[in-house]
Structures are given as C-alpha cells and as structure tokens.
Design goal:
The structure is a single chain. The chain has 78 residues and is mainly α. It has 2 helices and 2 strands, in the order αββα. Strands 1-2 form a two-stranded antiparallel ribbon. Strand 1 and strand 2 form a beta hairpin. It is globular.
Length: 78
C-alpha cells in the first residue's frame, strides 16, 4: 500500500469528495481498496472495477480524472 493513503487523500481533494462519498455531479465515487495484487506497482487505482492504473502519482491521478471528465463530456455532446 506504498503511498496509497497519500494518493487517496489527493484524489479526494481533487474530486471534492470524502472517502466513501460521491462527487456532487454523481460522476465519481471514491472507495478505498486494500490488496489489489499489485504491490510492486503501487499506488494503484481501479476504475469502474475493470481498469487498473499503476504508479499513480498526483500528476497521473489528475490526468486520469481530467481525462474521464473530458470523455464523459464528449459522450454527452451531440
């Protein structure tokens, strides 16, 4: 769980959501996880219970969130 707590705190700050909470727009829910079987790749983030992202620095977390928001906006546009 190398730096997992720091990554979780950064993600919550970026999203404006508490651990276990959902963002105001309903787009993100933050759930902590324990063992994901990828200690050597920590910290890791699991997106939609399907995609595991490894070595998640604060910058990579920001890029992930921004990219997911952008993708959702593009899908919502006609």
């Amino acid at each position: 769980m190398r730096d997992g707590g720091k990554a979780l705190a950064h993600l919550c700050d970026k999203l404006g959501a508490e651990v276990g909470g959902t963002t105001a727009d309903g787009m993100f829910t933050v759930q902590p996880g324990e063992c994901m079987g990828a200690c050597a790749d920590a910290p890791v983030v699991l997106v939609n219970d399907r995609s595991m992202c490894s070595f998640m620095s604060h910058e990579k977390l920001d890029q992930l969130v921004d990219g997911l928001r952008q993708s959702a906006m593009e899908k919502a546009s006609p």
